[in-house]
Amino acid sequence: MSRVDRSALPSTEAAPAFRFPRLERRVLDNGLEVRALAHHAVPVVSLVLLLPGGSSADPADRPGLAALTADLVDEGSGGRDALEVADRLARLGADLDIDVTADATVISMTTLARFLEPALEMLGEIVMAPTLADEDFARVRGLRLDRLRQLRDHAPAVAERAFARIIYGDHPYGHLSIGTEAALGAMTAADVRAFHQRAYIPQGTTLVMAGDARHADLLEAGVRAFAAWPSGALPLDRTAALAAPPLVPAERLAIVPRPGAAQSELRIGHLCASRDTPDYHALLLLNTVLGGQFVSRVNLNLREDKGYTYGARTGIDLRRGLGPFVLQMSVQTEVTAAAITEALREIDLIRGAKPVTDLERDLAVRSLTLGYPRGFETAQQVARSVAQLALHGLPDSYFEAFVPAISDVGLADLTRVARHYLDPSRLVTLIVGDHESIAGSLRSLNLGEPAVLGV
Amino acid sequence: MHIPYTKRTLANGLDVLVHEDHQLPMVAVNVWYHVGSKNERPGRTGFAHLFEHLMFEGSAHHDRGYFEPLQRAGGLLNGSTNADRTNYWEVVPTGALDLALWMESDRMGHLLPALTEAKFTNQRDVVLNERRQNYENRPYGLAGMASSAALFPADHPYHWLTIGSADDLRATTLDEVQAFFRAYYHPGNASLTLAGDIDTEAALALADRYFGEIPAGLPVAPVSHEAALAAEVRLRLDDRVELPRLYLSWHSPAMFAPGDAELDLAADLIAHGKTSRLYRALVYERRVAVDVMAYQSSREMSGIFQLIATAAPGHALDALAGVILETLAAVATDGPTPSEVERSLVQTEAQFVYRLQTIGGFGGKSDQLNAYNVFRGDPGYFADDRARYRDMTPGLMAAAVRRYLVDAPHVALSVVPRGAEHLALPGSTPVHVS
To answer: Residue ranges of the domains in chain A?
Structure first.
């Protein structure tokens, strides 16, 4: 046995070029696009239906309608009541997940490959023929109101809600998908039925099927299940999300008091970019250096050096319309002001005084590209990724082009996007924490008196 | 359905398991140390987990953070600690396997020279913040501590949660950290699994090359404690919450012991998802609860069966408890119906298949092989594990529910909004947890 050379870390070998599995598609007469990929690792099939209406498609006076509708579609369909639907899915070993994001409603179902046909039938039933009965509406709305009430005590949820409100105001992105108590209280089953009729239609919708079956068999099964879906007469207006939100936020510093809280939940950010920005890859790389991974500047400073938090990170939520750049962390109450100062400093430094170095760029490029195949291990990961292509109108070649595109981003690009997309003068700092004990220290931030918000 | 593997034990006692899966050009490295908060003692709780943090802060030949070189190589990495074990894993591109093994072996063999007071103090502060974030500042976040403390006597290591007490974390010294490493972090108390895009013989040779030179440590004596509950205990915890929540906890069989799979399936039948009996009774029909769940959390020395339900506004927890206990009694008397059994067979088959989808990370194939190896001494236990569920009968489930739940005392913890003590079960004693 040769002794290990511990004088230096072993070098790593180059990785093969990333290949994405072949994708086949068919567009039905009713407008539905079906995309299929074979994925043979285990006898599992994953179905992802992407409906391009999310919480930003909520009517202005009905925030929460898209999510309430999504919650109701599996509460009775095709002559089955809510419990019978759940029972049928359980007998297929199916995991059903319905997620309403700002831009879309995503219905995912993973099942054993041998149940592909009945699983598709159930998915079709839920999407095309939900009962949406008055009594189910009343029950589910009640549960969502109770959930909203519970979220008042959940600091991260309080922060998300208040932050969206401050940076977006009345813009369609200004509320969370769960909506508000007032709006949910005023909604009727008729609202849900009307929304379903406009949002759950084949035009603009994509069904992605990935799993242990042949392309042709997947496509044919998908077509059979959804061929009878009638086209919608009045598709949703999806342009509202693209409207320009306020450029100047309502507040620069705000606090939602949480007396006696052990930590301050923080959000620091501003509106930044949309998914179709030509600087997508540069922004992703910039964020990786600043706060997008464990060894980012923000986490190394606030966690590994200062010990202020269990973890600090930044993200750019790139949507169809303008999405925010946000730094988030939960810090020990006593160090709230100090942590905010450090966070603001890091955002400022990367724009000029301490631009991204060659070493940092190299680390981020390698981190994003060498591990890229890992994101496509399961049928569900693959299906969800392809659904994202559909949402943002990206080409099939997108995944294979990702690695070269990231590798092409240079230091000058990073400095340019840091200056262009990060703007300290517009940063909003939101705190959910013990106002009384930190009020004095907040003055050191020179951001003025904080606006005090309700939950 | 199984996970093919090869096992070899190195001369120093390290178990090495290899599983080939060439779907992606990646390899999962997964190391289990058979140590957790069950190896702690009163006054030094939270120690095993704090130690896990220190394992990422550098070792003798790489005295810097562990994340940087591995993220630079495109790797993903993490670790976790529970009552019974501590695990560390990386998922790396195949070309970075040497790097991952070099680093895992360096911290197994050469951690202490790099351990400093500064690193220790920093990670203690990080862990105190982890505790604040995930327990102190979270609704119902302290319920687990209160339940475990009531269920197990003060000297039983399941009395406390793995995160430990804040005072204990502050009292811990660097000397104690060093002694802990010497006692538990050595090849004979560890299991290494490599899964993914590798050749078995090459992988075994690599494992021997990097880990073979680490000296064997002293055997670790198994920890053994008894716990029983004499009578029902009713407690009340006042919290910053809107709705009251009931936590019912019972002592239950240890991991893989007779009764364990029975109660696991019973938990599904009784309170998992919309098909469960209590969802129907409490949430769907009577609407006295907004959610209900149950699980059999089985561990090495013994398990905990826990049933949790949150009351709907305007309802006291008493109304929920009555329905819950009636439902348990019905299952103990009649067992599940044939139709319920048929449904749970498909569901468990699906869950076993879904577990085979990933090579690494928490719960992936490499983690699974290590779990079976460490807890059963048999990495090939997958098929037997599945058989425990496939061969289940209504009679076995009914008998387990009677013996461990219906005929046994439990801890009933009412977590209620401050100022709404009347929503707790009658006769509950207030408890304070911090």
So the answer is: 24-237, 253-452
